[in-house]
Design goal:
Blueprint lengths: L9 H17 L3 E12 L5 E10 L5 E6 L7 H18 L6 E6 L3 H5 L29 H8 L10 H14 L1 H9 L18 H13 L5 E14 L2 E5 L5 H11 L3 E3 L13 H8 L4 E10 L3 H17 L9 H10 L4 H24 L2
Parallel strand pairs: 3-4, 3-5, 5-8, 6-7
Antiparallel strand pairs: 1-2, 2-4, 6-8
Helix pairs in contact: 1-2, 2-12, 5-6, 10-11
Bound molecules: zinc ion (ZN).
């Protein structure tokens, strides 16, 4: 029943987004559509682009920035939320005094090729390092966990050995340290998991240049970045990056409720380097930002990690002729975009709810 929002490949998702944008243009709700085209092509030789729809009041100094698909495959559920919200806007319009930018598929290559990373194996949510920071270094404990999560031969499907080895690693080093080592982002091993890139990547460069124009008229920005794979199945967590003071966190919690988790204090979260929102806040420090990463849980953390490990190892060492059709890619897709009706329904409802709360937060702010 949610088929009209959830696409099975990048071509369909991007086309639906462009069609919905066009309907909003025809109704005079949207005022501009744009495409930022990448050099690479998708598995069906299709053009890959970051698609953008701008709507509401072009002169407003309040902007809601909705982004999806910075993590490739996670773009399928992210795209579904954006389509659903845009459909609602087509029916109900948008309040005055605010502009909204829907940015579809920040990593179209990963979305099309069913990977979480981009064409250079870079995790784009670790690629937005502050302008003065070098693409160097790795977390203290990464070398301890490297042999487990980056096997030098393609692993078997069930990975029972991996599960038990991972458990003993966690027993030895603790959950918090293990998570921190794996998730922080590393800039030393280009073929390994959680590589943040060797420089600012093509897609992020295009996006930042576009945003530079848009932000000339906007001082208050509510940014929502859509993700899946972290937390309890079907439930969402609203992650804040470490740039906020305790006072600001309190205010954000009053507006957005108990689901808010600051990245340095919550039990499911960890510190990261180079995430999108940190990248925006450090590039435009004089703007008033409220940035939320909306994360929807899918499966257990170990299951998610296993899918990532399998997919990356098969990609790096598998010598598979048609890797796009390989089980490791499809397993990755289903890990981040489960085929489950109630999960999909819950995701659309919560995605829409946060969008509406975000609009209110902008409209009621000074
Ligand atoms: Zn993600």
């Amino acid at each position: 029943m949610w088929e009209e929002y959830y696409s099975n490949d990048y071509v369909a998702a991007a086309q639906r987004f462009r069609d919905q944008s066009q309907r909003l243009m025809d109704n005079d709700v949207a005022y501009d559509v744009q495409r930022l085209v990448l050099k690479e092509k998708g598995p069906m030789e299709e053009e890959l682009s970051i698609d953008i729809c701008l709507l509401g009041d072009p002169k407003a100094n309040k902007l809601l920035l909705s982004t999806s698909g910075i993590h490739g495959v996670e773009g399928y559920p992210g795209s579904a939320i954006q389509l659903y919200v845009m459909k609602e806007i087509e029916n109900e319009g948008i309040p005055e005094g605010v502009s909204v930018a829907f940015v579809h598929a920040l990593n179209p290559w990963g979305m099309a090729w069913l990977r979480r990373v981009n064409e250079t194996n870079s995790d784009l949510n670790r690629n937005f390092l502050p302008p003065n920071e070098e693409y160097l270094g790795e977390p203290d404990d990464y070398d301890k966990v490297n042999h487990l999560i980056n096997p030098s031969k393609p692993p078997s499907k069930n990975g029972k050995m991996f599960t038990s080895k991972m458990f003993s690693h966690i027993l030895k080093y603790g959950m918090r340290r293990t998570k921190q080592a794996i998730a922080e982002g590393q800039y030393t091993r280009p073929a390994a998991l959680q590589f943040g890139g060797e420089s600012l990547q093509q897609g992020p460069k295009l996006f930042l240049a576009w945003l530079d124009e848009v932000l000339k008229g906007a001082d208050n920005i509510m940014a929502i970045d859509l993700h899946t794979g972290l937390g309890k199945s079907g439930q969402d967590t609203l992650l804040l990056n470490p740039g906020y003071s305790q006072e600001e966190i309190k205010i954000i919690k009053q507006r957005f409720g108990k689901k808010v988790a600051a990245l340095d204090s919550s039990s499911i979260a960890y510190r990261t380097r180079g995430d999108l929102h940190q990248g925006l806040m450090t590039r435009w420090p004089n703007k008033n930002w409220t940035c939320i990463t909306q994360e929807f849980g899918t499966f257990s953390q170990l299951k998610v990690l296993k899918a990532l490990r399998n997919e990356n190892a098969w990609t790096q060492h598998g010598n598979v002729e048609n890797i796009y059709n390989h089980w490791s890619r499809h397993k990755l897709l289903r890990t981040f975009n489960p085929r489950n009706d109630s999960w999909r329904e819950q995701l659309l409802k919560r995605g829409r709810m946060l969008f509406e709360e975000g609009l209110l937060h902008l409209l009621e702010g000074e």
